[in-house]
C-alpha cells in the first residue's frame, strides 16, 4: 500500500520533500497558497537577492574598478527597471520549473491556504485532507519594529527592498545582519547613500569578529556608513521622508533621515492562517512549531521542517531536512547534521562559514588550533582584488579534525564544499595537506590555511 504524504508549503522545504517522497513511491499532495511555487527563497529571497547583487556589482566594477585597469568606460544611465525585469524572468523561469517537476513526479498540487480543522485534518477551500504523514513547511516572515510598521512603500522589509522601482537616494538599514548587508550592498553599488543602524557592537554578529571587522572595513571604503550599538527609538514617515530617532553608543539621541528604510532585524516562523492549535500542534515561546529530534510535532504523524521549525533559516537546511525526513518515513534511514549547515553572506567579498566559529569552540571548551591564510599572499587573490580576504580554519588539537572554517573572498560560497566534505567525513588535517589544487586558484588558500594550522604554510 502506497504511503500518503500531505505537505503544506511549496518553498524549498516543501517542494523538495514532495519530489523526494514521490521518487520513493509515495502518493504526495502539496498545498501552496501563493500563486507561485518556490516559497520565500525563489520568489522574494535567495534568488532575486542574488540576481540584484550580481547586476549591481557590475555597476560597481564599472564605476570604481575599471578605470584602475585602464578601461575607459563611462556609465551613462542605469535602467533599473530592466534589472528588475531580468530578475523577474529568472524567478518566473525557476518557479515554473518547479510546477513542471511536481507534474513530472505526479504530485497533486493544490493552490490554496491550508488550515487545521482537527487533529490530522486540514481544510483547503472546503476540501478536507488527511494523510499518513503531514509535513508542515509554512516558512517564515520578517520581524518588524512594533512602533514602525512595514508598508513596503517607504518602510521596507526585504520583499519591498527587492521590488523597488527607483534607486533610493538614502537607504537606512536597520540591522546589519545577512539581509541588511546584502540589500545595502546592492543599493550602494547602484549609487545610493547607505547607512546602517545596528544594535550589536559589530556587523554580521553571528560570524567571527575578524570577519565582521574585515567586511565592515571594506564596506566603509565603499562609502557605507555605520552606527553600531545604536537602537532606533522612534520612526516616522513624514511627506515621504523617513525620520528616525536613534539612541547611540554613549546614549546620545540623534535623528537621521532617508527616503527609504529597510527593517532587517530577523525573521520569525510563519503559522498565520494554519490554525495549528486546532490541529493540536504546539508552538514554542518564539512561535516555532515544537518538534522532537525526529521533527515530529506534538501530534503523531505530523512533522515540521524548514524555517517554521528549529534551526537556521536557510534554504539548504530546509530542503535537506525535508529530504532526510521523507527518506526516513519511507524506510530509507537518513539524516543530516545541523553542524554541517553552511552559512553564506553574498556581499562582495562573500563570507562563507561551516562548522563551529571561535565563540562556539570556546564555549564548548574544545582544544583547537587556528590556521589562517590571507589572499594578499595568493596570486589569484591579487588578480581578483581579494587582498583583504582570508581563509581561517579551526582544527581540533586532539583529533586533528577540521572543526570549522570561514572564507572571505569574492567566490567564497563556491569554495566551501571541500571544508564541508572534510567536516562531514571527519577527515584528518593530514589527509588534506597534500591535496593538489590547480594553480593559480583561490582554492590554494584553503590548503595554505590548513598547512598554517601546523605552521607549515608555504606562501605566508
Ligand atoms: P518558505 O520558503 O518561506 O516557504 C513556505 C511556503 O509556505 C510559502 O510559499 C508560503 O506561501 C506557504 N504557506 C505558508 N502558509 C501556508 C498555508 N497555510 N497554506 C499553504 N501554503 C502556505 N537562504 C539561503 O540558504 N541562501 C540565501 O541566499 C538566502 N537569501 C535570502 C534572502 C532573503 C531576502 C530572504 C528573506 C531569505 C533568504 N534566505 C536564504 C532564506 C530562505 O529563503 C529560507 O530559509 C527558505 O525559503 C525557507 O524555506 P521554507 O520552505 O521553510 O519556507
Ligand atoms: P539576522 O539575524 O541575520 O540579522 C539581524 C540583525 O539585526 C542582527 O545583526 C541584529 O543584531 C540586528 N538587530 C536586531 N534587532 C535590532 C534593532 N531593533 N535595531 C537594530 N538592529 C537590530 O536577520 P536578517 O538579516 O533579517 O535575516 C533573517 C534570516 O534570513 C537570516 O538569519 C538568514 O537565516 C536568512 N537569510 C539568509 C541569507 C543567506 O543565506 N545569504 C540572506 C538573507 C537572509
Q: In words, what does this structure look like?
A:
With 460 residues, the protein is an alpha/beta fold. It folds into three domains: 4-141 and 268-339, 3-Layer(bba) Sandwich (FAD/NAD(P)-binding domain); 155-265, FAD/NAD(P)-binding domain, CATH 3.50.50.60; 349-452, 2-Layer Sandwich (Enolase-like, domain 1). The protein has helices at 12-23, 39-44, 46-65, 80-104, 158-162, 178-189, 209-221, 315-329, 358-363, 379-383, 412-415, 417-424, 429-432, 444-452, and strands at residues 4-8, 27-32, 108-111, 114-118, 121-124, 127-129, 133-136, 140-142, 155-156, 170-174, 193-197, 225-227, 231-238, 241-247, 253-258, 260-263, 267-269, 302-304, 343-345, 350-355, 368-374, 390-396, 402-409. Strands 3-2-1-7-18 form a five-stranded parallel β-sheet, covered by helices on one side. Strand 22 and strand 23 form a beta hairpin. Helix 3 (46-65) packs antiparallel against helix 4 (80-104). The protein is globular. It starts with a strand and ends in an 8-residue tail after the last helix. 43% of the residues are buried. The model has no long low-confidence stretch (mean pLDDT 97).
Amino acid at each position: 500500500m502506497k504511503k500518503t504524504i500531505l505537505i503544506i508549503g511549496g518553498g524549498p522545504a516543501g517542494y523538495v520533500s514532495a519530489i523526494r517522497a514521490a521518487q520513493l513511491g509515495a502518493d504526495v499532495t502539496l498545498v501552496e497558497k501563493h500563486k507561485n511555487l518556490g516559497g520565500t527563497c525563489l520568489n522574494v529571497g535567495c534568488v532575486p537577492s542574488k540576481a540584484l547583487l550580481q547586476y549591481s556589482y557590475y555597476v560597481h566594477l564599472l564605476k570604481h574598478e575599471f578605470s584602475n585597469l585602464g578601461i575607459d568606460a563611462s556609465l551613462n544611465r542605469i535602467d533599473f527597471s530592466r534589472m528588475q525585469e531580468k530578475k523577474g524572468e529568472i524567478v518566473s523561469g525557476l518557479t515554473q520549473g518547479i510546477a513542471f517537476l511536481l507534474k513530472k513526479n505526479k504530485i497533486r498540487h493544490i493552490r490554496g491556504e491550508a488550515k487545521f480543522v482537527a487533529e490530522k485534518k486540514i481544510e483547503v477551500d472546503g476540501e478536507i485532507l488527511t494523510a499518513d504523514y503531514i509535513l508542515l513547511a509554512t516558512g517564515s516572515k520578517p520581524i518588524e519594529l512594533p512602533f514602525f510598521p512595514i508598508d513596503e512603500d517607504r518602510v521596507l522589509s526585504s520583499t519591498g527592498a527587492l521590488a523597488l522601482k527607483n534607486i533610493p537616494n538614502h537607504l537606512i538599514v536597520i540591522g546589519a545582519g545577512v539581509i541588511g548587508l546584502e540589500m545595502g550592498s546592492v543599493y550602494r553599488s547602484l549609487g545610493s547613500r547607505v547607512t546602517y543602524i545596528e544594535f550589536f557592537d559589530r556587523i554580521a554578529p553571528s560570524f567571527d569578529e575578524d570577519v565582521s571587522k574585515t567586511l565592515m572595513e571594506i564596506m566603509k571604503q565603499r562609502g557605507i556608513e555605520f552606527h553600531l550599538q545604536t537602537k532606533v527609538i522612534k520612526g516616522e514617515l513624514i511627506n515621504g521622508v523617513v525620520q528616525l530617532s536613534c539612541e547611540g553608543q554613549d546614549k546620545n539621541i540623534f535623528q537621521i533621515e532617508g527616503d527609504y528604510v529597510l527593517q532587517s532585524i530577523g525573521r520569525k516562523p510563519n503559522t498565520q492562517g494554519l490554525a495549528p492549535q486546532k490541529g493540536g500542534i504546539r508552538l514554542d515561546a518564539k512561535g516555532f512549531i515544537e518538534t522532537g529530534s525526529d521533527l515530529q510535532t506534538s501530534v503523531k504523524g505530523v512533522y515540521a521542517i524548514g524555517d517554521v521549525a528549529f534551526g537556521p533559516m536557510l534554504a539548504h537546511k530546509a530542503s535537506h531536512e525535508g529530504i532526510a525526513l521523507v527518506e526516513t518515513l519511507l524506510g530509507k534511514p537518513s539524516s543530516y547534521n545541523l553542524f554541517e549547515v553552511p552559512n553564506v553572506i553574498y556581499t562582495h567579498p562573500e563570507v562563507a562559514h561551516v562548522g563551529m566559529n571561535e565563540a562556539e569552540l570556546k564555549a564548548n571548551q574544545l582544544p583547537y588550533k587556528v590556521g589562517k591564510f590571507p589572499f594578499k599572499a595568493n596570486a589569484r587573490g591579487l588578480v581578483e582584488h581579494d587582498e583583504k580576504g582570508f581563509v581561517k580554519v579551526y582544527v581540533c588539537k586532539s583529533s586533528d579534525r577540521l572543526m570549522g572554517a570561514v572564507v572571505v573572498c569574492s567566490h567564497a560560497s563556491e569554495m566551501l564544499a571541500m571544508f564541508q566534505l572534510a567536516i562531514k567525513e571527519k577527515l584528518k588535517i593530514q589527509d588534506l595537506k597534500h591535496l593538489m589544487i590547480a594553480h593559480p586558484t583561490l582554492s590554494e588558500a584553503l590548503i595554505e590555511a590548513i598547512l598554517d594550522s601546523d605552521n607549515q604554510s608555504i606562501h605566508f
